[in-house]
Structure formats: C-alpha cells, structure tokens
Amino acid sequence: MNLNFSGPVLSQAVISGVMLGGLFALISIGLTLIWGVMKIINFAQGEFLMVALYLAFFLVSWGHIDPYITILVTVPFMFFFGIGIFRATISPILKDPVMNQIMLTLGVSLILQNLALMLFSANVQSVNTRYSSWNIHIGSVVISGPQLIAFIGAILCTLALWYFLKTTDPGRAIRASAQNPSAATLMGIDVPRTYLLAFGLGSATLGLAGSLMIPFYYASPTVGVFLGLIMFIVVVLGGMGNLMGCFVGGLIIGLAETVGAAVLPGSLARVFTFAIFILFLLFRPQGVLTKRQT
Amino acid sequence: MNLKAPYIRIVVIGALICLLPLFLSSFYMHIAVLVLIWAFLACAWNIIGGYAGQHSLGNGLYMGIGAYAVAFLLDRFNMTPWLGLVVAIALSAGAAAFIGWIVFRYALKGAYFALVTIALTEAAVYVVSNIPALGGAGGMQMEYHGNSLYYMQFAGQNGYFFMGVLLVVFILLLTQWYRRKRFFYQLIAVRENEDAAEALGVDTVKAKIKANVMSGVLCAVGGVFYAQYFLYVGPRSVFGEVVSVQILIYAIVGGLGTTWGPVVGAVLLVPLSEITRAQLGNSYPGSQLLLYGGVMVLTMLFMPFGIMGLAERLHQRWQHRSTTQVVDSQGGEAS
Amino acid sequence: MTALLEVHGLTRRFGGLVAVNDLTFEVNEGEMIGLIGPNGSGKTTTFSMLSGALKPSAGTIAFNGERIEGIKANRVCRKGLARTFQVVQPFPDITATENVMIGAFVNVGGARQAEATAREMLERVGLTPKADTLAKELTLLQLKRLEIAKALATEPKLLLLDEVAAGLTSTEVDVMLRLVRQLNSEGITFIIVEHVMRFVMNLSHRCIVIDFGSQIAEGTPEEVLNNPAVHAAYLGEEASLA
Ligand SMILES: Nc1ncnc2c1ncn2[C@@H]1O[C@H](COP(=O)(O)OP(=O)(O)OP(=O)(O)O)[C@@H](O)[C@H]1O
Ligand SMILES: [Mg+2]
Questions:
Q1: How far lies C185's CA from each of A26, C4, C152, C189, in Å?
Q2: What does pTM read for this prediction?
Q3: Fewer CB atoms < 10 Å away: N or C end of chain B?
C-alpha cells in the first residue's frame, strides 16, 4: 500500500471534499425535511433527483438555456411533481403502518427509474456548458467553478429553509404539525396541507440541486441509486430530521470520499467512506448534532 | 383442529410439487426454481420483517454474503460449497448480529433501521465492486463440475428444483413449528407493542437481534442456493437495493407475517416477472422492475395486508357470521 | 427484616420540570399502598421508574434487597415487579389469550402451559368470554382488565396498578375491589394509583400523597383524608375526597 500524505494533494482533497460535501448536503436536505415533518422516508428521493437532472439536461442541451436560469423551471416543476406524487400515492396511506409507506415509496422509485430507462435508454447524458471547464486556482489548489456555486447554493438553501421554518407563518405551521399534529389541528392548522407543502419543498430542493449539478454531473436512469445511497447515509449521520446536522453529515461524507480517494489506493477509497459511516453508527448512532435520548 | 394439520399440509403440498418436472418444459422449470429461491428468501425475510415487524430493507446483504462466500471459497480454495455454507452461515450471523446490535441497542427503530439496512446493502455493492479478489464489478464465475454432490451441483434443473422444494418445505416447517414457541410470541409482542412487551419481561433488544440473525442466516442459505444454481455471483445480482426489495416484495404481496404469504407472493409474481422479461426484456429493458414497482404501489394502496392477509380477514368475517365461538387459535395464518 | 421495596430520594426531571421530587418510602411484603395525588403530580412517572420503563434522574430503588434503579423493564419484570399501564397497552392484532400468554412466558417455556396460565388469568379478571377475541376489538374496560391479566400472568410479588378503576361503574368497582383483595390475600403486594377514592381508600393499608412530585403526607386512609395539606392540594380538583 502506498499511502499518499503529501501536503498539496491533501489540501486539494480537503477543498474538493468540502465542495462535494456541500453538494451531498444539498441533495439530502429534502429527505431530512420530509422525515422531520411527517415521519416518512421518501425512498424515491434519489429518483426525484434523477428526474430533476434529466429536466435540467434537456433544458440546457435542447433548449439552450443557461443552466443557472433553468432553476426558474426546475424548482417549480419539482415542487409540483412532488405534490403530485404525494397526492396520488402517499397521502392516501399517511395513517398506514410505516412498512407500507416504505414499500410505497420504494415502488415509486422503481417505477421512475425504469420508466426513465425505457424513455431515455441506459445512456449517461451530460452536457458541456460554458461553466463546465471553469476552474478557480488558489495557489496549488483548484476549485471547480460550478462545484463552488453548488456549494454556495447548498449553504443558501439550508439557511433559507431554516429561516423559512423559523420565521414565516407557513414555516411555523410546518413545525407545529411536525411536533404535534393533533395539537396543530386544534390550533386551526390544516395539517395535511402543511404536509403537502413540506413534501413539495423537499422535492423542490432537488430541482435546485439538478440545475446546479448539471454543468458538472450527468443524468442517467440509475443516477439516483448512488446519490440516493448518499442521501440515506448523510441523513442518518446528521440525525434524522436535523437540517444543520444534514449539512455536517454531507461534509463528513464529502471529505471521506475525496480524502479517502487521495490517501488510499483506488479500491479501498470507497470502502473508506462506508467504514466512516459504520464508525459513526457505532459511536454516534443518533446523529452528529443530536443528543442521545434517555 | 388437529395441531399437526399445518405440518401435514406443508409436507403434502411439497410432495405434490415434486411432480411438476413431469409436466414442465425447461423454460418453466427454470422459472419454478426461481420461484423456490425467492419464496425461500421471502420466508426468511418474513421472520424479521413480518413477525418481528422490523423494517429491514437490507436482506440482500446476507444473501450476498452467502453467495459470495461459497463462490469465493470454491474459486480460491476449491472448497466444497457444503463447507462454504458453514462459512456463509457464520459470516451472515456475525453481520446480522452486529447490525442488529448497532441499531437496536439504543431503541433506534422504524425508519432508522430501514435507512441503515438499505444503506449497508447498497454500500456492499460498491465495496464488493472495488475488491479485485471478489471479481470486482464483473462478479465471479464458478467452475462447473456437472452432477456432483461434493460440489453441490447438478446437471440440469431437476436437481436444483428438488433442492429448492426441500429448502422451502424446511423453512415452512420451521416457521410453523416456531409459531408455537415462546420466541415467536415474543417477536409478535415486539411488533405489536414494544413498551408492553418490555413490561411483560420480554428482552426486546435481544429478541430483535435474534430475529435479525435468524432471518440473515436463512437469507445467506438462500444466497448459497442462488450461487449454486447460477454458478455466477455479481455485486448487483445478490447485493443491493433491488435484490433486497425483491426479497421482501413477495412477502408483502403475499401477506406479511403469515406462514404461506411469502410463498404465495413468489408463486404469483416470479413467473409474471420472468415472462415479462422474456417477452419484453429485449425491447423494453426495465419492464420487469417497472412491473414490480407498479405491483408494490398498487398493493400498498389497495391491498395493504397482502393476499393471505385479505383471505384471513375475509375468513374471519365469514366465521364471525357462521359460528358464535372460535375455538381454534391454530388454524389462522396471521397472528 | 428489610422491606419488599425501598425507595430513596427518587427524582425525575423532564427538562426544567421536576415530575418526581426526592420521594422516599418503603413497602412491606403483603401491604397495599395507595399512591394518590392530583392530576400531573407524578404518580405514573413514579411507576415508570419503579418498573424500569424510565431511568430516574436521581435516587435508589431496592426490590427484595436488590438495587434495580436504571435496569431495563424486562429484567425488573422478571424479578417479580409488574405494572399495568394507565393508558392501556394491548398487543392489538392478537387475541386476548395470546396477549396474556406473553406475560406467562416469563415463567413457563411451552406454549401449552402458557396458554393454560393465560386462560386462568382471563378467568380471574372475568374476560373468559373474550378469550379468543382480538385485543383491538375489546372495549376500554375490557382492555383495563386485560392489563391486569397480563401483569398477573408474570406472577409478580409486587404489582403496580395505575388507575384500573377509572371509568368503572359502582358494581364494577366492587368486583375489582374483591379481585384485588383476593390477590392480596394470596400474597401479592400492591401499590395502587387511583383517583376513585372509594377504591383506593377501601383497599389501602397506608396512603402516600404526592403533589408536584413531592410527598406531602403519609398515613392511614383516615389520617390522610383529614390532613389539611392534602385538602389544599386537591382544592380545585374534581376528584372529591368524600
Ligand atoms: N415523557 C414526558 N416528557 C415530559 N414531561 C412529562 C413526561 N411524562 C410526564 N411528564 C410530566 O410530568 C408530570 C407528571 O406526570 P404523570 O403522568 O406522572 O402524572 P400523574 O400523577 O400520573 O397524573 P394523572 O393523575 O393525570 O395520571 C406532568 O406534568 C407531565 O406533564
Ligand atoms: Mg398517571
């Protein structure tokens, strides 16, 4: 094993890891929001992101729209896409056992993934935008421009959601419904509506992610499988339902990916990320920012 | 009713099934073997998912461990799969105990268990794909030895078919026998109300870990069978989300926590999906999984208790009307 | 001789709220103790700590001379300390008999024996006609009896009853009174939490009164009823002491 601990390589890995971590946080935040509000894990969240990536891809490659302008389309589209899926499948079984809800969202994920396979074939689709090869050099460290933008987007998105939940009326309604649905109902809050709103928001964040990712990522029917796995890990690490924890969880996994790849030989790099995950499960199973319940 | 009746029913149906090779062509025998493999795996999952009510989405992990253990040991050391089976059981037991302990010791449960298990089974895909000794992303081909008991291999499908029937009959008898054991009552108590179970002296953590180990070990046995039949293991064919979902979909469609549900689910869905694949697989790749997705969504929306659950409920309603007293606590399938 | 149960300095905080504050008391073998207090005074929380469902913030609990504070509920139960739940906790999708069998398995290994014990316990609480009914189909009153049958099946030395008489008619209270007395004469020690004063005052050898988590009085039912501090605590409460 030849370990590589040289300074420049490591600092490059750390910077890339932070950028990647922000991206991981951005794609995971919707999952943790939805869980926090209605105690449902949307196992189709990875496939929702796939839909957003395809949408962004087609807008950019066929519509010749600037990737960052597509946000104006992808975010509202994913908002209503989420609401549509919620209305059609999840809201009828909100009171059913957790297992049924899990199965249902897994079913939705299989449908989306394989519909995409039929419609768009298994090909990986990426598009060269004018941002794609934009790099920022700081000393010996290189930062990819679109990744930096995605990172900033992740921070803004986390803060915006946090601000929205803390200070606005619909945000407060969402938090009240999350804490105690029956009390919220008594206070005159339309709980099913806030669930719908929260699910839509959780889905809309993926619209943002899709647009921000398309300059340096790709769309494919199975793109949501790996990204979905990342979401699950990040949400568990961050503490389920914890927005700030989600950001920290994203950073941990992003750093594990890049530092592992820089320091360890190829085949062990992937193992490293999952080893980190298992270590966190062992020592902080309740999440990085959550206190353990007694 | 006679306490032995459910056992007799299992054995008789098993014996009748053994006549199938007389009637089926090779294509349908292949499907029959697949039905048996998945029925066995679904029965194994049913222990943790159906009886203990814990949302394990990662049983592909144990199936993969079983399949890869025999394949690797045969490939590397020319070790007989019978010994490989022992190793598979030991490894899967260790993994299932470890995962169960990690999750259940702090009373983390429900969706948390689901997330952790699905993450670990997916992670296994990427880990195995990156280990050259395990064949990497391409998986491992196992050497064919023809009819050989030592290598647990058969020429043609009939040998595998009978082995599958034996396994499924075995697991059905095992579950039927366990239904009247303290351990299974405790599992059901855990599923129904954990606080109440704890207050009545049930060590809920230990019960859940034990159920996870039982389920995991049996899934590994299913994985061994799978590897021996296909003589090939690949990361996505025995590990991962899709495999794990396949394992549990049969149990859910058939009826969670019922003895026969997983078998009924597999008997209905496996042929349907295999025929879909044979007919449409080339022009529409993914049609098979699309079908699974559709079945899952529709089942959850319109038949959340599965086929056996529905039958059980209809049966109960009918009994309610026709008799005043229900004496038999054995006859029903669901608990 | 040591008491069956010795509680010392038992305290539980929920964030800033002190639900149970520095409780110290003893229960001797064969006694029936009433634990009373206004709504929210910490009775159920005390039971949860005694039975191991909740970890105390401070204090010790000794049962049969053995320290049990902080150990898990299933072990407490197997040592012979059982409870019923104020908010009933059935296993909804299995029959009443099977519900009780779970408790019986503490002492017996075989399903046949457990079932025999279960049916006997159902008989004692008068649920025999419902023995094969799914728990989710029982009424609240039947579920309260089921709670007792489940706990009895574990063969406890000390049984904590949390409001088992609430909502019963006068005749039903009488039936329950007789059952508890009978069980006590068979050697089971009781701590009884109850707002139905007729029930608890009739049964208790001794009463402990708590308010805001702290003990405010202790003594025979008569002494407690005539205690001004107790009257003050219950003032404005619906429950009448008469
Ligand atoms: N899990 C909990 N978290 C926070 N506060 C709690 C919790 N459980 C109980 N409390 C609070 O502790 C106090 C005591 O509650 P407890 O249920 O023990 O009262 P109680 O005497 O049984 O009342 P009641 O007669 O109404 O049954 C109450 O103020 C209650 O709100
Ligand atoms: Mg109470």
A1: 66, 16, 14, 9
A2: 0.90
A3: N
Cβ contact A240–B130 (<8 Å): no
CA angle (B251 as vertex; B248, B252 as ends), nearest 5: 85
Q: Which chains reach chain C with 3 or more Cβ–Cβ distances below 8 angstroms?
A: B
Give CATH superfamily name and number for C1-80+157-163+190-242: P-loop containing nucleotide triphosphate hydrolases (3.40.50.300)
Question: Which of 293-332 (B) contact C at CB < 8 A?
Answer: 325-327, 329
Asked whether the beta carbons of B87 and B80 are under 8 A apart, the reply is no
Number of H helices, E strands in chain B: 14, 2
Examine residue B177 and state whether it is found in any structural domain, yes or no: yes
pLDDT per position as a tens digit, C69-123: 989 999 999 999 999 999 999 999 999 999 999 999 999 989 999 999 999 999 9
Tokens at B208, concatenated: 């859940």
Other chains touching B, judged by 3 or more CB pairs under 8 Å? A, C
Q: Which CATH architecture fits A13-283? A: Orthogonal Bundle (1.10)
Q: How many Cα atoms are found within 13 Å in the side-chain-facing hemisphere of B65? A: 24
Instruction: Supply the pLDDT for residue B331.
Output: 39
Determine the distance separating the centroid of ligand 2 and the alpha carbon of B53, expressed in angstroms.
Answer: 29
Domain boundaries, chain A: 13-283
Listed residue (A78, A288, A100, A116) closest to A200, CA to CA: A78
Question: Quick check: is B44 in a domain?
Answer: yes
Could you tell me how many CB contacts below 8 A there are between chain A and chain B?
144
Total length of chain A: 294
Burial letters B1-11, b for 16+ CB under 10 A, else e:
eeeeebeeebe
Q: Which residues of chain B does A103 touch, with a Cβ-Cβ cutoff of 8 Å?
A: 248-249, 252, 296, 299-300
Q: Closest Cα to atom 11, ligand 1: which residue?
A: C19
Domain count, chain B: 1
pLDDT at B324: 44
Residue of chain C whose alpha carbon sits nearest to that of B177: C111
Nearest CA to ligand 1 atom 12: C19
pLDDT at C207: 93
- Average of per-residue pLDDT values in chain A: 89
Q: What are the extents of the domains in chain C?
A: 1-80+157-163+190-242
How far is B241 from chain A, CA to nearest CA, in Å?
9
* Interface residue B334 vs chain C (CB under 8 A): yes
Nearest bound ligand to the CA of residue C20: 1
**Domain of residue B39, residue span:** 5-242
Query: How large is the average pLDDT for residues A156-161?
Result: 92
Percent of chain B with pLDDT over 90: 54
A202-211, B302-311, C133-142: segment of lowest average pLDDT: B302-311
> Quick one: three-class SS letters along A143-198?
EEHHHHHHHHHHHHHHHHHHHHHHHCHHHHHHHHHHHCHHHHHHCCCCHHHHHHHH
Q: Is the pLDDT of residue C240 over 80?
A: no
Burial of B231 (0-12, 13-18, 19+ CB in 10 A): middle
- The pLDDT tens digits of the residues spanning A113-136 come to 999 999 998 889 888 887 778 888
CB A30 within 8 A of CB A210: no
Judge: B186–C111 Cβ closer than 8 Å, yes or no: no
Chain B residues inside the 8 Å CB shell of C109: 182
Specify the pairing of strand C214-219 against strand C206-211: antiparallel
Is C231 a residue whose pLDDT tops 90? no
Is B335 inside a domain boundary? no
Q: Which of C10, C43, C83, C195 to mutate to test the pocket of ligand 1 (most atoms within 8 A of CB)?
A: C43
pLDDT (tens digit per residue) in B156-207: 888 999 999 999 999 999 999 988 899 999 999 999 999 999 999 999 999 9
Determine the pLDDT at residue B321.
64
Q: Where would I find the H helices in A214-242? A: 223-238
Contact B335, C132 (CB under 8 A): no
Whether B195 maps to a domain, the answer reads yes
